[in-house]
Amino acid sequence: MPGRGNKKLSKTESMQNKKWLLGGYGRRSFDDCDDNESNTIKNQRLLIDEHIQGLENIEIYDYYLDDGYTGTNFDRPDFKRMMQDIRNGKINGVIFKDLSRLGRNHKETGKYVEEIFPIYNLRIISINDNVDSFLDPESINNLIIPIKNLMNESYSRDISKKVSSAYKMMAKNGQYVSGTPPYGYMIDPEDKHHLIINEEEAINVRTIFELALKGNGRIKICKYLNDNGILCRKEIQRRKKHNLSLEPFEVDTLSFWGTTQIGRILTSETYIGNLAQLKTTRSSFGINKYITKSSEEWIKVENTHEAIISKDDFRKVQKMAKEKNFNGAGTSYNYSIFNGILKCADCGRAMLRQIDNRKSNRISNYYCSTHLRASKLCSSHKIKTETLEEIVKEAIHLQVKLVIELDKSIKKLFFKSNEKEYELEYKNNIRISEIKIDSLKEKKREAYKEWKFQKMEKDEFIKLSEEIEQEIKIHLENIELYNSTYKETIKRIRKDEYWINHYKRNKNIKKLSRTVLKELVDIILIDEKGNVNIKFKYQDEYNNLIKYLEGEVVKQNEKVDNWLLSKTFSR
């Protein structure tokens, strides 16, 4: 019995001498009204430093501080970084001011404290809650913890409602409560809830409306702005951030005016001095998903700021929009199965599908998006939608056929009949070698007996033993070779089966779909003459398999169809 006592004592002593590397976590959110002095990140860190001074074997590995992040969810950068360090074993404990710093969502906070943290055997210290899971293990189960978590969540939910109500009241009073001000305006330095005209941008807003009043559609307006070097706000911000010249054509432009942006400007009452706000609402408390409200639910207030466009001109543009429909009755852009895949071969930008609704047969073509927005920078690269789809479909059929034929050749090379017989042959080879080794060992034992009973000379025995050992070595090497060859073969087959199966399941496609393109096609490039260059996925794997097959053919002196080997992976 004393042995058990000593073992228990040594375990206790071991725990007492354990080195604790803690992650100090802090969080503050103005949305949660965490603006009192004690909740500043600086003071949370000071409180943690002061607390650990009285504790033994503790060291702060790193601080994880989320300043300006709500506690209603755990989508916070430093919290995620802390969890990664926990998973990597860099820290074995966490310390924070109180549970409200960890989170205000009762369900999620409880999940981390009661389920996730214990998986990693973490020491949890919540200073103001008087919790230390190492010094007082029962403290973590104290009923006050879930109650406080629920109180924190209720408090945050209540604050959220109050903030939402406050924003609603301000919007009704004509105060600006949205984020980035609309193009042409900026926040009044003397009143952050009031818009004033940004004259540098307002000039361009007036130009856009002038062009619209002359009968120009969104595409022509985009081309005018981009071709004349009028930079959009995003491009100006990028250049200022990287200290680049603001002269339009001195550096390459990356962001252009787009038809959506033009349409938004032409239909916004902001430019006649009115505000329409709170157009979205959060789907549920604590979830960062927003739902767009119907226009009837928007909060609209007239004459809240100085207008850039006259109401008369604005009404004329809206009337023209209905007649000519800037939003799509003439020409329009639709969702395309090629989105993100189809690119201009020269400028690298997306190709957009444009449908001409003015003709009975609705002509559909793809054009370089750079050309549509800034015709001087790139040519049209025009290709008919029907032509493109037919070319891509035929190319996929051919590529699927090539991959299936390659798969057959590989399996024919490895498995003379089938995989099960190949496995049986492998096991038989191993077994035959093992039997031969056992026989040689028995032969050596018999030789030993003959030498021991003086029926064989010592020199003869030594020579025979060396010969037997040499034969055993050869058989062991053969077994090793059989094992490695078999394992490598199966490994290669299994590895290649993954991507080959992508092609196999698409061998009978009759119509192109987004799913098929995403699964098989990496990128499609259209050159200036409308030629199509398709680069399929798994190109490296395909080429490596071809090379491997060619090498094996040379080794085994077998032939493979020259037609197959001459094909390239892209068309």
Would you kindly provide a written description of the structure presented here, covering whatever features stand out?
- The structure is a single chain.
- This protein has 571 residues and is α/β, with parallel strands linked by helices.
- The chain folds into three domains: 2-158, Rossmann fold (3-Layer(aba) Sandwich), CATH 3.40.50; 185-329, Hect, E3 ligase catalytic domain fold; 392-565, no CATH class.
- It contains 18 helices and 18 strands.
- The chain has a five-stranded mixed beta sheet, with helices on both faces. The protein has a four-stranded antiparallel beta sheet with strand order 12-14-15-16. Strands 13-17-18 form a three-stranded mixed beta sheet.
- A hairpin with a 5-residue loop joins strand 17 and strand 18.
- Helix 5 (106-119) crosses helix 6.
- The longest helix has 47 residues, at 458-504.
- It is flat.
- Mean pLDDT is 82; it is low at 1-13, 326-330 and 557-571.
